[in-house]
Amino acid sequence: MFQQKNSIRVQLLFLTLVLYLVWPSELLAADPSIRIEMERATSEEVRVAITQFELGKNSSDSKGLGLEARKILEADLELSELFMKITPEVFESLERKEMGSKKVDLWAWHQIGVQWLIKTEYSVMPGGKLSFVFRLYDTVGERFLLGKRYTVGEPLLRKVIHRYADELVLQLTGKRGVAETQIAFLSEDNTNKEIFTVDFDGFNTKQMTHDRTL
User: Domain TolB N-terminal: where (predicted)?
Assistant: First the structure.
């Protein structure tokens, strides 16, 4: 998951160590009860459809942040081993029909094999701010389950998607997911050793020590 670079040899020291970094006030505080070892509360995966992230009016996304965010969410849910992603080809016709509309035909989504439906609207605002509105639907019970809104700076894109993925796991199992956890590891090259952290999915590596004394 995490690739070695140059002569640096990465050794994972604590595979079950959960580290918490301080979140900016614009995000919710992390739940201290989160654990990497999570008991599965369901016997089979929930079939989920994640539609295209719909860009708000009067907003432009030249960097493709919506597409990136969708891929992160899909990967997080796959890593949780609790969800089965429905391929877009299965629902593209229905998705196209509802694009730009607040009306959702949950019965129609259920008929094509979807159990959970995730629809997302987002905006790219001045100053590099991003706004996401997530809506989760249960097509089996034909009901709206959960709505979440986040406003963050672009550098926190991955972190906020991880947080939402954990909210989905919480909704399903009653326990938060592990997408926003971090792993500590020791990197050494020749004589120097330093501690780094990396996100659970292998991205966002950060050096935590700079003292060259390890």
Answer: 35-142
